[in-house]
Amino acid sequence: MRTAAATEAFLGWWPDAGSTFTMSETSTLRAQTIESSSLYNRDLAPVPRERRTWRTYNYAALWISMSVNIPTYMLASGMTAGGMNWKQALFTVFLGNVLVLIPMLLNAHAGAQYGIPFPVFARASFGVVGANVPAILRALVACGWFGIQTWIGGEAINAMIVALAPGWANLHSGTALCFFFFWLLNVLVILRGIETIRFLQGISAPFLLLIGLALLLWARTKAGGFGPMLGKPSKFQSFGEFFRFFIPSLTGVVGFWATVSLNIPDFTRYARSQRDQIVGQALGLPATMTFYSFIGIAVTSATMIIFGQALWDPVAVLARLGNPWAVVLAMIALLIATLNVNVAANVVSPANDFSNLSPRRISFRAGGLITCAMGIIMQPWKLMADYGSYIFGWLVGYSGFLGPIAGVLICDYFVFRKKLLVVEDLYRRKGRYEYARGFNWTAVAALAAGAGVAFVGLVVPPLRVLYDYAWFVGFLVSFLVYFFLIDRLDAVAQPAD
User: What are the C-alpha distances in Å from 362 to residues 184, 188, 366, 367, 469?
Assistant: First the structure.
């Protein structure tokens, strides 16, 4: 049973002015109101203040563990394979991560302030039912990422088997079987609970970091030093040619973390203070992404010298090490790290998002299983077919949906609500976030307008620049549409002080 002190910490509220109840009685009543709501379950509940214990180190460590992964390596290596030199690719990665850090910190504020996850935060702007629109869009992207990480794990298993039994390479369905096996391993972890791999979280990032450093040293030796490795010139002959490749690449970098920039409240709701989450994220994200990206850039440049072609997939590089036991050791380390990153980064958020559809019926575990199924349906092998599909198709494409969501959330929370939310009403029908039968259609319209303008560039060639800037265009259009429409329609009820 929750004590009165715990209840006050849970809600973080004071009694209404003129209330005849004591603070403890009022807080208890409000807690009971939340817990009896059809919009409530334990996974979506506000985090009690006594459980908000994450400090600066925790957030820096979180970003180190999430940034040191194979897709990070492939993001930067894909730019090198596409024609950038190492300085151009590294600058693009660094700038993109500094830019995405801005909406990340803005959306993080509500999580740290009120202890609420992303789907609940979205109820303030989209409505208590309409919040399912951005939540499911975000969840589908996470399902795609889950599939991509699982495909990478399957490739690692396949490479490991080939190293020990070369005849396996002749099996046409070998990679698909390995993918399915690794997928089942992820399902098992979700069924048993995320705590089953908690002991791996502290070593997963170091594993991948060691693999990256080992690849870097190997490439340096094989290529004859850093000079030849980093001496590859840019293939672009003019600034115009470079800029046409740079813009969608930059958008791809922003899109890489545009997912977490929305659901970051899922993590910052555990923050001890705003300062802890801000400093921790600012220290952890840009530096780690840039450093690990450098490894991908350098090794990919070296493969042009060593193999005569740019190998942007580290699994393909590791498979060519020559020593079968070195390949096995590297693949085991990669599998452990990929399993942990996949569950932490690509299951937590969509599980909450799917749970938000029907909190009483869909638990976190059920949401995780839905994520696993959707990961197969989204065909990650096509998303990872080449660097063009990965960067310009997948990353830039979904950023056209996520940018507009960020525009609505930030405009609503900072411009109209002045960072004031009534947490109780986020968990009940007929409250101030009910709008029109649970939907704020102004927010939905702003999201549609932002995405529509961004994707016009995909179907109208002369307007291709709109798609190349998909996240930025979508964010700006949705922010402005929401800003002008919401004020005139008076759809926002400001919470009382």
Answer: 21, 18, 6, 6, 36
